[in-house]
Amino acid sequence: MVAPRPDEPIEDARYLPQALFPPLGPRGQARLRSGRVLVVGCGALGTHAAEHLARAGVGSLRLVDRDVVEWSNLHRQCGYTEADARESLPKVLALAAHLGRINSGVRLDPRVADFHYQNALDLAEGADLIIDGSDNVPTRLLLNDVSLERKIPWVYSGAVGETGHVQFFHPAAGPCLRCLLPDVPAAGELATCDTAGVLGPAAGAAASFQAAMALRYLGGGPEEIHGLVERQLRLQVWTLGVSVARVPRDPGCPACAQGRREFLAGRLGDLAAVLCGRGAVQVRPARAPQIDLEALADRLRALGKVEARRFLLRFQAEETSFTLFPDGRMIVEGTTDAGRARAVYARYLGE
């Protein structure tokens, strides 16, 4: 498309191809401009979805992620560069900078934080829609509780191997996630990025449909709900498979039918979570102390190799390697054993 004429508003030119799409139109584009979206998790799913929404002109994006950019992220997570990985930049700061260069009209609110039951409602405050870019079932079930409690719709997505899944959930219609997953699956029951790997196009395709559902809801108005609920999309990018399954509401669901919010109450969560595709476990303290990383680095230097930066501390000894953040979160590398990760935390931080 040619550049806008001097007398043509840049914003009108930017979104013209999208506004010409009849189901959206100029009125839908105006609705997008007032939309407020919370993106939980800025990995492969979250980065692709957030970029689609920023380019589409969604007015406000709150970005939440607990992690920093790693080299293993670069094959599938858009918006990050080798420089970001070298500097171990927090993902939300790197992504916000990237999106700000794409569309200066979008309000960006990056939060370096672990999304958990103690802060979930605050982080969701004011959101019209939630995008799920998380990498584990407990966080998704927590998102489900937040959605039901605050009456905020959300778009689930997941990608493992060649397969992506996408589903729109609305608290006023159709099933919720616990209609499908009443409980957290047992260890080893589901394939993960560590056991099955993940293709970048699988995450990108799933996130594209996820963003399309978000645009349809935000731009199309409340009547679009009925065309979105009770349908789960499954994509297989390697073997070229696409299917849509009907997912009805479970009348005995503990969350949407019985009103229980066990994940939001913290009764079913875990302070240790295996990170998909990382071969690592994140341990979160029961309380959230603010740790002086420089002072701790001085104490740890006698025990191993230490690298302290503004946003994190890395420690490596013969059998132990971890990354520690100022809020007390620790990522223990080289294990998927939550018990071992907790033991490492207790040994070096005493909690």
Can you describe this structure?
It is a single chain. The chain is of the alpha/beta class and 351 residues long. It has 2 domains: 34-246, NAD(P)-binding Rossmann-like Domain (Rossmann fold); 272-349, TATA-Binding Protein (2-Layer Sandwich). It contains 12 helices and 14 strands. The chain has helices at 10-19, 25-33, 44-56, 82-86, 91-102, 120-124, 137-150, 177-180, 193-196, 200-220, 293-300, 338-349, and strands at 36-40, 60-65, 107-112, 129-132, 154-160, 163-169, 231-236, 241-246, 272-275, 280-283, 305-308, 313-316, 321-324, 330-333. The strands form 2 sheets. The chain has an 8-stranded mixed beta sheet, with helices on both faces. Strands 9-10-14-13-12-11 form a 6-stranded antiparallel beta sheet, with helices on one face. The model is unreliable at 1-8 (pLDDT under 50).
Characteristics:
single chain; 351 residues; alpha/beta; Rossmann fold; TATA-Binding Protein; 2 domains; globular
Helix percent band: 25-40%
Number of helices: 12
The name of the CATH architecture of the largest domain is 3-Layer(aba) Sandwich
Secondary structure class reads alpha/beta
Gap between N and C termini, in Å? 58 Å
Q: How much is the average pLDDT?
A: 89
What is the CATH topology of the largest domain? Answer: Rossmann fold
